């Protein structure tokens, strides 16, 4: 990390003595000023709740935590994810803006054509963490006109009990924010479930020990033997390779966010630069078992996106495969397609870094195209 | 029983409300609504989220919620990073741009100009009221001083009065800002 110019520190001190300690974490004066303002607001708000008139001491404590590199979302306890303000807590990955952009775009894509679309959509989010993906998808889907009578059956699954608890709390506060009128929107939100399951567990090998596999957990939920169908499968799995975790991952992320949500902890014999791909073949196997027609998987960059797209091309069941960038709806001057190793051309949509892989097949092709 | 007391207290309150209050502030004239902000077409702006280069996603935790929009016909650029929510920053940036365009287009008649003029008027009238109040106070003090002066001796009276009124004027003048903010 480049060192901070002493003139910048002097400039910061002239504005507020609490700014210089924030600079190493924020890197620039503008974001340090923004964060100090938010920390101040938080200190005043929490101070008022405890009946304290002065919040100076607590503000100093908050600044000290941020100065050590702790993410501001853990300090303030929330993060904005699209339109939603979701709770955050140490031990659970903080939702990322780019994920919100992908999920919003997916909700828009699924709302473009309603003719031929089933009136009930089953959506599964694997590695759901804070629950941000199903909650935002729900919000964005019903924000689109013409979707008010469509029912969403949404399930999130995660291996971390802590994450599941947070997701359920986030669900509760979203329910509280809804209108009291009973609509498809409110019932879909209330019926959302978060299950304890291990995505990488392929068979009912150790059924006695929790967590169980995804298919089993879903069977237990619906209480049916044949595996239920989920038309849509979304996942933001741990995708950072052990090499990238050591080199290109930010220190604040490495030191404060759960490694379980970042790096697959079951590395195969793959070299350390590629061991971040562990989840994707498993997610595709689950997509087959659950008769999934639409998938959206988050990836680290364009290279990983191409590797995942290659996996999909090899399956040859997918009618369309696309790579989405950070802002999938935006236009950019960058290349609008990439060539895979097998020679297939895959369209790349939007602006920014390669962020997710989107594909569909079967009956969904009729109403998505 | 509790309900009875409750209804009773409600009733007494109602009775009280019917009586005119001793100290009332005259309600100001209802303000005319500000002219609306001009609508901005989404096709006329170029929006970008300032998040810098480098990797995104899980590898980094970017806190920037800043939004920058460029108005393509005029080339005006506005930026908003007020809140942690990018969605509210998007709205704030659009409002800011709308006000800027309005100001350029209508000048004196623009929303911002009218808003600003109202604020200065309000401030000026508050200042005026404050000055009047302090002048009155000083005058009362002066009258008191004169009464006391009469008691102490005939000659000192005129000088005491002129001195007091002089002080009240300078006090009033200097208080243009101070009492106005205090009254507000």
CATH architecture of the largest domain in chain A: 3-Layer(aba) Sandwich
> What is the count of structural domains of chain B?
2
How would you describe the oligomerization state of the chains in this entry?
Answer: heterodimer
Computed over alpha carbons, the radius of gyration of chain A is 22 Å
| Largest beta sheet: strand ordering of chain B | 1-2-3
> How is the main sheet of chain B built?
3 strands, antiparallel
Structural class of chain A: alpha/beta
CATH C-level of the largest domain in chain A: Alpha Beta
Strand order of the largest sheet of chain A: 6-5-4-3-7-8-12-9-11-10
Q: List the uncertain runs of chain B.
A: 1-18, 151-184
- Poorly predicted regions of chain A are none
In CATH terms, what is the fold-level topology of the largest domain in chain B? Double Stranded RNA Binding Domain
> Which two chains form the greatest contact, residue counts included?
A-B, 43 and 19 residues
Q: Tally the beta strands of chain A.
A: 12
What is the distance, rounded to the nearest whole angstrom, between the alpha carbons of the first and last residues of chain A?
46 Å
Q: What features would you describe in this structure?
A:
- The complex is a heterodimer of chains A (369) and B (184).
- Chain A is of the alpha/beta class.
- Chain A has 2 domains: 6-69, no CATH class; 91-368, Vaccinia Virus protein VP39 (Rossmann fold, 3-Layer(aba) Sandwich), CATH 3.40.50.
- Chain A has helices at 6-15, 19-26, 29-49, 56-67, 72-76, 97-109, 132-143, 161-177, 184-190, 214-222, 242-247, 251-256, 279-289, 302-315, 364-368; strands at 78-81, 84-87, 120-126, 151-158, 193-198, 212-213, 232-235, 294-298, 320-327, 337-339, 345-349, 351-360.
- Chain A is globular.
- The model of chain A has no long low-confidence stretch (mean pLDDT 92).
- Helix content of chain B is 57%, strand content 8%.
- Chain B is elongated.
- Chain A binds chain B through residues 26, 30-31, 34-35, 38, 71-73, 76, 79-80, 82-83, 85, 93-94, 96-99, 236, 238-240, 244, 248-250, 252-253, 257, 261-262, 298-301, 326-327, 352-353, 355, and chain B through 49, 51, 55-66, 81, 84-87.
């Amino acid at each position: 990390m480049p060192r901070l110019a002493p003139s910048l520190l002097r400039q910061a001190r002239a504005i507020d003595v609490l700014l210089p300690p924030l600079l190493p974490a924020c890197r620039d004066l503008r974001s340090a000023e923004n964060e100090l303002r938010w920390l101040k607001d938080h200190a005043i708000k929490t101070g008022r709740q405890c009946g304290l008139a002065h919040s100076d001491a607590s503000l100093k404590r908050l600044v000290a935590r941020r100065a050590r590199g702790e993410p501001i979302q853990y300090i303030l306890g929330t993060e904005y994810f699209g339109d939603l303000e979701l709770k955050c807590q140490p031990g659970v990955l903080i939702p990322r803006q780019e994920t919100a952009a992908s999920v919003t775009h997916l909700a828009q894509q699924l709302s473009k054509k309603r003719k031929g679309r089933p009136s009930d959509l089953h959506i599964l989010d694997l590695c759901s963490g804070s629950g941000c993906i199903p909650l935002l998808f729900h919000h964005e889907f019903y924000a689109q006109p013409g979707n008010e009578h469509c029912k969403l059956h949404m399930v999130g699954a995660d291996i971390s009990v802590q994450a599941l608890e947070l997701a359920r709390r986030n669900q509760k506060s979203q329910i509280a924010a809804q209108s009291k009128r009973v609509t498809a929107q409110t019932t879909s939100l209330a019926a959302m479930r978060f299950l304890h399951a291990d995505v990488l567990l392929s068979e009912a090998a150790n059924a006695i020990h929790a967590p169980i596999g995804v298919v089993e957990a879903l069977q237990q939920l619906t209480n049916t033997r044949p595996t239920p169908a989920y038309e849509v499968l979304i996942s933001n799995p741990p995708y950072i390779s052990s090499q990238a975790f050591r080199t290109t991952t930010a220190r604040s992320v490495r030191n404060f966010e759960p490694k379980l949500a970042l790096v697959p902890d079951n590395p195969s014999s793959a070299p350390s630069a590629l061991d971040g791909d562990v989840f994707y073949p498993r997610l595709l196997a689950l997509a087959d078992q659950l008769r999934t027609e639409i998938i959206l998987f988050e990836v680290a960059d364009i290279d990983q996106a191409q590797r995942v797209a290659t996996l999909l091309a090899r399956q040859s069941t997918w009618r369309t495969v696309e790579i989405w960038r950070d802002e999938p709806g935006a236009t950019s001057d960058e290349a609008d397609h990439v060539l895979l190793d097998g020679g297939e051309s895959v369209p790349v949509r939007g602006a920014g870094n390669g962020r997710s892989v989107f594909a569909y097949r079967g009956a969904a092709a009729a109403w998505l195209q | 029983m509790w309900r009875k007391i409750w209804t009773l207290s409600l009733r007494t309150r109602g009775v009280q409300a019917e009586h005119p209050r001793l100290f009332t502030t005259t309600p100001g004239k209802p303000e005319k609504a500000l002219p609306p902000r001009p609508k901005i077409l989404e096709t006329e702006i170029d929006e970008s989220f300032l998040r810098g280069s480098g990797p995104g996603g899980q590898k980094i935790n970017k806190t920037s919620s800043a939004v920058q929009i460029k108005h393509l016909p005029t080339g005006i650029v506005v930026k908003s990073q007020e809140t942690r929510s990018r969605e509210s920053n998007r709205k704030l940036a659009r409002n800011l741009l709308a006000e800027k365009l309005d100001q350029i287009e209508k000048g004196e008649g623009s929303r911002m100009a009218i808003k600003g003029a109202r604020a200065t008027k309000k401030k000026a009238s508050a200042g005026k009221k404050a000055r009047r109040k302090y002048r009155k106070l000083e005058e009362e003090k002066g009258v008191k001083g004169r009464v006391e002066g009469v008691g102490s001796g005939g000659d000192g009276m005129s000088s005491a009065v002129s001195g007091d009124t002089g002080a009240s004027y300078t006090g009033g003048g200097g208080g243009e800002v101070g009492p106005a903010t205090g009254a507000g």
